[in-house]
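Chapter review. Work through the record for Regulator of sigma-W protease RasP before attempting the end-of-chapter questions.
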Amino acid sequence: MGFLYLLNLTAFLSLNLCIINLLPIPALDGGRLMFLFIEMIRRKPIEAEKEGFINFIGFVALMILAVVIAYKDLIKFNLLNFFR
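Structure tokens for Regulator of sigma-W protease RasP:
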């Protein structure tokens, strides 16, 4: 069970990361694909400053989400007392 389990877990995590990365969220690859799709429909490129700003906002939102999830996990597993 050891090596095959590890191989299956690795494949599952890789596939999961691929799917999450393709979500149309700015700052991820799916966000870049979304910008390319918009440029294809509009037939003109999006300004680099606007795209960069939108990607920055998406990155900040993802970081806030990561902090909130980590905080909720610390509360759920009662690990905040460990750091006090």
